[in-house]
Design brief:
The complex is a heterodimer.
Chain A: E1 2-7, H1 11-21, E2 26-32, H2 36-45, E3 51-52, H3 55-62, E4 66-69, H4 76-85, E5 89-92, H5 100-112, E6 117-119, H6 127-137, E7 145-152, H7 160-167, H8 179-184, H9 186-195, E8 202-208, H10 211-215, E9 224-231, E10 235-242, E11 250-256, E12 260-264, E13 269-273, H11 282-307, H12 315-330, H13 338-356
Helix pairs in contact in A: 1-12, 4-5, 5-13, 9-13
Chain B: E1 7-15, E2 35-39, H1 46-55, E3 60-65, H2 72-80, E4 85-91, H3 97-103, E5 107-112, H4 122-143, E6 148-152, E7 168-169, H5 185-204, E8 208-213, E9 215-217, E10 229-232, E11 235-238, E12 247-249, H6 250-262, E13 270-273, H7 281-291, E14 297-299, H8 302-318, H9 329-336, E15 340-341, H10 344-350, H11 358-372
Parallel strand pairs in B: 2-3, 2-5, 3-4, 5-6, 6-8, 7-15, 8-13, 9-12, 11-14
Antiparallel strand pairs in B: 1-4, 10-11
Helix pairs in contact in B: 1-6, 3-4, 4-5, 8-9
Chain lengths: ~375, ~375
């Protein structure tokens, strides 16, 4: 039985506890939060053995095999380091750390201690993302991706969290290097990082505060971001984060030398884009029919998964946790490579550095 | 004056005291110049409570508001009372112990109205209701000058099962022992908030009163309560039927809250707040449609809603939460079971009287709904 602990008992810890419950062969031996009341409320609602308000006590008394770090990102590095030092494997919620350097140090420490560590990029493992990965691995794209487009949007108006952030000048998100973006974009960036082949891609970022936020007096939070990522004139990617654009997409488009794919996370659909054109008028009539069939196929798959009781909103998280535990217990491959975690951190660093610099590299040209 | 960690948007707004101190002044635990703290003071009930206290002749009110709160209501109150009364507006976060310490300094009575309403996640609601309440209690206890802490709770804490007097829900009815199974963040947080207040009352001899309003309605809260029904995919499912809805008009409720902080001899008591004449769900819906807006509604008989809640609960458990347990038998009992309500204790011990008659209250509410153009 794998002994699991959770450090940080806020909103996302609930999702972790719910998904861990669904995994066989593990038990939650302890939860910990600096605020004892928060630790107790989680302990009272889930089958959890003990609760703590001091991480050192948790580590020495509960001896967890794996610790999930679900605290605000500012504490990820220090808590993960403590867990690794005391011999536990670590699952760190996104964003993995505050910067590339911290990520690099944690991964090095894990390797030194012969322990494993992963990042909570669970959107990479929901049903549709796994179907996409299988297709790419089967060579559907041809000689790999040529261009990618990742959309990761966020409806500020619908979010209570954003309301709290915007109204509170002392909110913890404001002290992150990338502020609101830092806490959200890693899912969308990780999608791109998975398919990049270079460890040092070129990153161009352009961001601004939307007129809506500006009208509320907000000047600090950037909620519109466009990024171009490229590697050696071979592979390019666009990343879009927007709080204003509708629909508020969570989409990934992947174009290869032969065919393309569109993954829609919100609809859980995966659409194949055929590389070859149909001749003449067939190009006007056949693709809509083929696309309609594809959407019906996606509907059937989703229904089947739902009926099989495996269509939970956090199915990606369950799969990622389960894969990580398998890697820990059976020595299987890690679900997310260290290279991908580091590359995601590196791209985010590059974005925030550019947004931070008053003299942005991209200047709009007014014509 | 700029206390550490707190920002004040409007210090010492001056206000006129044009009201007369009530004759029962000797039966009160505070004097007119004692400092009174109202948390959630910019909100639907909080701003009215501030006005109520000023009308009673209290001249020293500290209003605690979130940094993001709109202060227009409080400013209106100050504009109407430009004289010797002192309203101090403190912006801060009750999650911060330091803010709580500063806010509770020299305070004789605390009216704690701030709560994590509208939170969907249990940890968020818990933090904004329970942790904040604990911070406030500990801070005020450290100052050793508090005479009463009024905790504003809700009917949602009752199980509405195994009631001593069959269908009558009153203060003696059992509290939900497993609020985590209700699937509702607000209920969970409110049960735990009441628990922590009672725990500190016992542990520290902390003087408190708990007020549990039914559904507080009035201009500023124009929605239709879930006890009447729910709007799903464009169709309103009417679930209340002939049930009485435990309405309390905002001014009537605020009157009860104000009294709970002032009256002598009620420490440790719990008071339910409902108005005298309660309409049935059907009567309310009919009036709403007639005066505000017509819309399609389908009546779901109680037996059917019970069965649907039962099935939903079973499916949620069987599917390991593929559908969250938003509807379950605990929710059905708390929201849609036929129940009668009492305000007897409120009248007997606090001397509460309904200041806005039910018919007038409903008229004002419907008019506000019409003006806002809201619909179900």
């Amino acid at each position: 039985m794998l002994k699991v602990a959770i450090v940080g008992c806020g909103k996302i810890a609930d999702s972790h506890a719910s998904q861990i419950q669904r995994i066989k062969g593990c038990e939650i031996v302890g939860v910990c939060d600096r605020e004892p009341l928060m630790a107790r409320q989680l302990y009272e609602r889930f089958p959890i053995k003990r609760y703590f308000s001091d991480i050192t006590e948790l580590l020495t008394e509960a001896h967890p095999d794996v610790v999930h770090i679900t605290t605000p990102p500012q504490s990820h590095f220090e808590l993960a380091r403590l867990c690794l030092e005391s011999g536990s494997h670590v699952y760190v919620e996104k964003p993995f750390t505050l910067c590339y350097r911290e990520a690099e140090r944690l991964i090095a420490l894990a390797a030194e201690k012969k322990l494993k560590i992963t990042a909570g990029h669970d959107d990479q493992f929901n049903h549709v993302a796994r179907r996409m990965r299988e297709l790419v691995q089967s060579g559907y794209l041809g000689d790999g991706p040529v261009h990618m487009e990742s959309y990761y949007c966020y409806q500020i108006a619908r979010s209570g969290y954003a309301g709290a952030l915007l109204g509170d000048p002392r909110h913890w998100v404001r002290s992150l290097p990338g502020k609101l973006l830092h806490n959200i974009i890693s899912h969308g960036i990780a999608r791109i990082a998975e398919f990049l082949t270079s460890d040092s891609p070129h990153v161009l970022a352009y961001g601004f505060t939307s007129p809506l936020l500006r009208s509320t007096g907000e000047t600090e939070i950037i909620d519109e971001l466009r990024v171009i990522i490229s590697e050696e004139e071979r592979l390019t990617a666009y990343f879009t984060f927007s709080s204003q654009m509708r629909p508020s997409l969570h989409q990934f488009r992947l174009y290869g030398t032969k065919n393309g794919l569109i993954l829609d996370q919100d609809d859980e659909t995966l659409i194949k884009l055929r590389g070859n054109m149909f001749p003449s008028y067939a190009a006007k009539f056949l693709p809509p029919v083929i696309n309609a069939r594809q959407y019906i196929g996606n509907l059937k798959t989703n229904l089947k998964t739902f009926l099989a009781r495996d269509f939970h909103m956090k199915s990606g998280m369950k799969y990622l946790i389960e894969s990580f535990y398998k890697s820990v217990a059976e020595g299987a491959l890690l679900p997310i490579s260290y290279r991908e975690i580091l590359l995601t951190a590196k791209i985010m660093d590059a974005i925030f550095t550019q947004l931070d610099a008053k003299d942005s590299q991209i200047r709009p040209v007014y014509i | 004056m700029q206390p550490l960690g707190l920002t004040r948007s409007t210090d010492h707004m001056s206000a006129n005291n044009d009201s007369i101190c009530p004759p029962e002044h000797d039966s009160l635990i505070v004097k007119q110049d004692d400092l009174i703290l109202v948390t959630g003071a910019a909100g639907f009930m909080g701003s009215r409570l501030v006005e109520n206290l000023l009308n009673r002749g209290f001249r020293n009110v500290r209003c605690f508001v979130r940094p993001s709160s709109k202060l227009s209501r409080l400013e209106e109150i100050c504009d109407r009372r430009p004289d010797e009364a002192r309203i101090e507006v403190v912006k801060g976060n009750l999650g911060s112990k330091e803010d709580c310490f500063l806010a509770t300094k020299d305070v004789a009575v605390i009216y704690h109205l701030a709560a994590g309403r509208g939170e969907k996640s249990i940890p968020d609601a818990f933090f904004n209701s329970v942790v904040t309440t604990r911070n406030l209690i500990e801070a005020s206890h450290s100052h050793q000058c508090l005479r009463r802490f009024v905790n504003v709770s809700s009917f949602t804490v009752y199980t509405n099962k195994q009631k001593p007097r069959w269908r009558l829900l009153d203060e003696s009815c059992p509290i939900e022992r497993h609020p985590e199974l209700r699937g509702d963040a607000y209920s969970f947080a409110k049960v735990k908030q009441d628990e922590i207040v009672a725990e500190y009352g016992k542990k520290l001899g902390f003087p408190y009163v708990i007020i549990r309003p039914g559904h507080v309605y009035g201009p500023g809260n124009e929605g239709i309560t879930g006890r009447v029904g729910i709007n799903t995919f464009g169709v309103f499912m009417h679930l209340g039927g002939s049930n009485r809805i435990p309405f309390t008009y905002v001014d009537n409720c605020v009157e009860a809250i104000a009294l709970a902080g002032l009256k002598r001899g009620v420490d440790g008591e719990v008071f339910n707040v409902v108005d005298d004449e309660l309409p049935s769900s059907r009567q309310f819906l009919r009036k709403y449609k007639r005066h505000v807006r017509t819309f399609k509604s389908i009546y779901i008989p109680h037996a059917i809603s019970y069965l649907l809640c039962f099935l939903w609960e079973r499916y949620s458990a069987w599917s390991h939460g593929q559908l969250p347990p938003a509807f379950n038998l605990k929710v059905w009992h708390a929201s849609w079971k036929k129940t009668y309500y009492s305000n007897r204790k409120l009248k007997e011990k606090l001397g509460w009287k309904q200041i806005i008659p039910s018919a007038e209250a409903m008229r004002r509410f419907l008019e506000a709904c019409r003006e806002r153009g809201l619909h179900a």
